[in-house]
């Protein structure tokens, strides 16, 4: 009898715990600052507002199911694609068409009052984040046009450098290719124009010199849309403690990237072995014209069991969050998943519908409801508003 009572007590406690984290998650404003679904649906010839489970990390209905309130959709192509500005407009038009078809589910707006109304109506708010300064083709007018269309941040570089800003990849892995490091005079004009527009300066992907030049140029809080901590996983894309502390002083926010290779320092070696095993198939996909990142995603979906075994855990991802909080406080961290632009995420995070597990894990780590609300969205909304002033 005692055993039965104990079992009932334990089950009841688990149910209460589950209800608590789900309730907190639903009531909080959930913001993800980086998702590559627009590129994914074009590359894979899919419809964003159809059921894409098993094909992508996200789709319109799954965003709503996951309790996502504001999604910033990445506008991206690699440095090899011709006419990147035209490609950017194609991606943005894709989401605008989805919003037009689904006015009861999706709205594109950066007006905070309109956002709050949309959330009360159960709608997803969408905005754009331009991933890579090459998308503006060295033209401030094109920057203005992307902003007018709904782009609310721009990552100064992707892995490829521009003529006016050097990337983390090039500064670290192939510095011989660079004619200069950091921001040129035009690069500083880009940052200044973004400040004037109210467009967040995103420092994911940028080289160390570009980072410091941008920090010394901007007059507004910066965004790091999808990066982690170099002290835990020392790859060029992650931030050093010195950089993290500078972002804290600036009032900016660092949003955690789910990519396994930026979470766990041992992952890259495991992934290389996986790709070598399937090299012929990868080459075949690339020969069709598919960009490498999406060819890799086809393989990881096909060989999901193999990939699962080399993925890190959610705890390992949240170790990065704890590290940032210890350095600069809970006001400076958020979520920037990189879903649909990555081939591997922590084992517990298989798609956007797993976001509530982050809330559960934060509670278990001792974060308060107030802290969790900041991490899930309030921190980003603060810097969005600060950039608009």
Could you describe the 3D structure shown?
- The protein is an alpha/beta fold and 389 residues long.
- The protein has two domains: 27-264 and 313-388, TIM Barrel; 267-311, no CATH class.
- It is 51% helix and 10% strand.
- Strands 1, 2, 3, 4, 5 and 6 form a six-stranded parallel β-sheet that branches. Strands 7-8-9 form a three-stranded parallel β-sheet.
- The radius of gyration is 20 Å and the shape is globular.
- Mean pLDDT is 93; it is low at 4-16.
Give a short summary of the structure.
The chain has helices spanning 2-27, 37-43, 60-65, 84-101, 112-120, 140-148, 168-173, 185-197, 208-217, 241-250, 260-263, 267-277, 279-286, 292-302, 304-308, 314-328, 356-364, 369-388, and strands at residues 31-35, 70-75, 106-108, 124-131, 151-155, 200-202, 223-224, 253-256, 333-335. It has 389 residues and is α/β, with parallel strands linked by helices. It has two domains: 27-264 and 313-388, Alpha-Beta Barrel (TIM Barrel); 267-311, no CATH class.
Would you identify the regions where 5 or more consecutive residues have pLDDT less than 50? Answer: 4-16
* Number of DSSP strand runs: 9
- Report the sheet with the most strands, covering strand number, pairing sense and barrel closure: 6 strands, parallel
Which CATH-level-2 architecture of the largest domain?
Answer: Alpha-Beta Barrel
Instruction: Give the ordered list of helices and strands.
Output: HEHHEHEHEHEHHEHEHEHHHHHHEHH
Number of domains: 2
Average pLDDT value? Answer: 93
Q: Do you know the CATH topology of the largest domain?
A: TIM Barrel
Q: What class do helices, strands and sheet pairing give? A: alpha/beta
Q: What would you give as the CATH superfamily of the largest domain?
A: Metal-dependent hydrolases
């Amino acid at each position: 009898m005692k055993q039965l009572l104990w079992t009932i007590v334990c089950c009841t406690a688990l149910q209460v715990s589950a209800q608590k984290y789900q309730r907190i998650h639903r009531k909080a404003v959930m913001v993800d600052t980086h998702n590559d679904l627009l590129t994914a649906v074009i590359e894979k010839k899919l419809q964003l507002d159809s059921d894409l489970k098993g094909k992508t990390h996200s789709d319109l209905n799954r965003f709503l199911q996951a309790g996502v309130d504001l999604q910033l959709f990445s506008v991206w192509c690699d440095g090899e694609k011709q006419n990147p500005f035209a490609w950017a407009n194609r991606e943005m038009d894709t989401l605008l068409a989805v919003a037009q078809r689904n006015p009861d589910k999706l709205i594109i707006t950066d007006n905070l009052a309109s956002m709050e109304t949309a959330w009360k109506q159960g709608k997803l708010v969408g905005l754009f984040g331009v991933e890579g300064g090459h998308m503006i083709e060295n033209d401030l007018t094109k920057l203005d046009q992307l902003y007018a269309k709904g782009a609310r941040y721009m990552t100064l570089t992707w892995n490829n450098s521009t003529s006016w800003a050097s990337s983390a990849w090039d500064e670290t892995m192939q510095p011989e290719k660079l004619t200069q490091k950091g921001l040129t005079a035009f690069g500083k004009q880009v940052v200044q124009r973004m400040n004037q527009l109210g467009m967040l300066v995103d420092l994911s992907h940028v080289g160390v010199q570009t980072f410091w030049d941008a920090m010394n140029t901007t007059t507004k809080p910066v965004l790091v849309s999808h990066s982690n901590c170099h002290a835990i996983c020392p790859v060029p894309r992650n931030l050093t403690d010195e950089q993290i502390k500078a972002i804290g002083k600036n009032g900016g926010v660092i949003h955690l990237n789910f990519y396994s290779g930026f979470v766990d320092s041992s992952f890259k070696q495991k992934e290389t072995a996986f790709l070598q095993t399937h090299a012929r198939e990868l080459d075949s996909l690339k020969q069709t014209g598919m960009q490498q990142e999406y060819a890799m995603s086809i393989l990881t979906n096909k060989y999901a069991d193999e990939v699962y075994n080399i993925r890190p855990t959610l705890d390992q991802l949240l170790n990065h969050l704890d590290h940032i909080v210890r350095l600069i406080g809970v006001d400076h961290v958020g979520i920037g998943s990189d879903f649909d632009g990555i081939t591997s995420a922590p084992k517990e995070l298989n798609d956007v519908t797993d976001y509530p597990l982050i809330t559960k894990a934060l509670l278990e780590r001792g974060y308060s409801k107030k802290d969790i609300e900041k991490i899930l969205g309030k921190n980003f909304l603060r810097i969005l508003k600060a950039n608009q002033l």
